[in-house]
Design goal:
16% of the residues lie in helices and 38% in strands. The protein has helices at residues 4-17, 19-23, 30-35, 49-60, 308-321, and strands spanning 72-73, 76-80, 84-86, 91-98, 108-109, 116-122, 128-131, 134-135, 140-145, 151-161, 169-178, 192-195, 198-204, 211-220, 223-224, 237-242, 248-251, 267-273, 278-288, 291-301. A hairpin with a 2-residue loop joins strand 12 (192-195) and strand 13. The two termini are 22 Å apart. It binds copper (II) ion (CU). Copper (II) ion binds next to loops. The site of copper (II) ion (CU) has 5 residues, from loops.
Length: 322
């Protein structure tokens, strides 16, 4: 149904997007997760045969949850020391990642140039921040943020512990921003976003359970931008958050700066799979003329195609035309 190369590339993207879910299938059982939140380490730490059986089933039927929905997973927990900050006032947010013994984690594997990527998103998806906190040698992370609107926010820590066998994890915790809360409606579905004088057009989209391609094309003053700058080792970073529960999907571009074939714009291409049908908010970070900009879109992941192989082939031929 596909060339081996394409399957490999797709698998790599999947591994990035769902590293947690595929690497640590054990977090799939909601009952078990509630009762024993820190018990789902990697397969090497899996419990009895029944548990391993459940893990295997979860992986097979794809029911392993997306990232960001749990505060504790794979033996690691997000310990949010700052539970609440005032609205519209620069405030320090502190947290730590703790291992199953309760110790603060101080060894991380770098992903895209950073040990940990921090995403802050309001529950209504109107506010989004992609930040890089600093860590003390004892393992406490801190970052200053000024959040423009009150309400409940989700804080996502995206990281990979350096410990052997540890998978890429996205842990999530709630952060309250105090003040008068007026939830914003989700912006309507659109394939064009405007930010800081840039216009970003989206082609393609998300499909549940099927890999889909998303091409984002950046223009300024009506002209394609062909000198995007690498930001964190890529020409763009795309995060998708599911409306309703903020399930977190971090995808990376197809191709990297300096690989000899990826151009610095105007189009940055991604591959992603939606965990379900529904509405998603996409946030694209890109860098141009020394500044990072964030373009956001609302997209609908429709019903999964019955013929994923056919759709992939269609995409592929499209690719060859360029
Ligand atoms: Cu980051």
């Amino acid at each position: 149904m596909n060339t081996p190369l394409r399957i490999t590339a797709f698998a790599a993207v999947l591994a990035t997007a769902f590293g947690t879910a595929y690497g640590v299938g054990g977090a799939a059982d909601p009952i078990r997760t509630t009762a024993e939140p820190a018990a789902h380490a990697g397969h090497d730490r899996a419990g009895g045969a029944g548990e391993r059986e459940a893990d295997k089933r979860a992986e097979e039927n794809g029911s392993a949850p997306p990232g960001g929905l749990q505060i504790s997973e794979g033996g690691y927990s997000l310990d949010l020391e700052t539970r609440s900050v005032p609205v519209a006032k620069e405030s320090e947010i502190r947290f730590a990642v703790r291992d199953s013994a309760g110790r603060k984690v101080t060894d991380y594997r770098r992903e895209h140039g950073k040990e940990l990527h921090l995403i802050l998103a309001s529950r209504d998806l109107a506010t989004y921040r992609h930040l890089h906190p600093i860590r003390t040698s004892e393992g406490t992370w801190s970052v200053d943020a000024e959040l423009p609107a009150a309400g409940d926010y989700r804080l996502f820590a995206d990281f990979t512990p350096a410990a052997k066998g540890a998978a890429d994890l996205t842990l999530g915790a709630d952060l309250a921003v105090s003040g008068m809360y007026r939830p914003a409606p989700t912006p309507s579905v659109s394939n064009v976003a405007e930010v800081d004088g840039y216009k970003v057009a989206l082609e393609g989209g998300l499909r549940p359970g099927v890999s889909g391609r998303l091409d984002l094309t950046v223009a300024k003053d009506g002209r394609p931008v062909t000198d995007l700058q690498p930001y964190l080792e890529a020409y763009g970073h795309l995060v998708a958050l599911r409306s309703g529960d903020l399930a977190y999907l971090h995808v990376h571009p197809n191709g990297a700066p300096g690989d000899g074939k990826t151009k610095p714009g105007p189009t940055v291409s991604f591959t992603a799979t939606a965990p379900s049908a529904g509405s998603y908010r996409l946030f694209l970070d890109f860098k141009h003329e020394g500044k990072v900009h964030t373009a956001s879109f609302t997209v609908d992941a429709g019903e999964a195609s019955n013929a994923p192989a056919g759709s992939d082939t269609a995409e592929e031929s499209e690719e060859h035309q360029h």
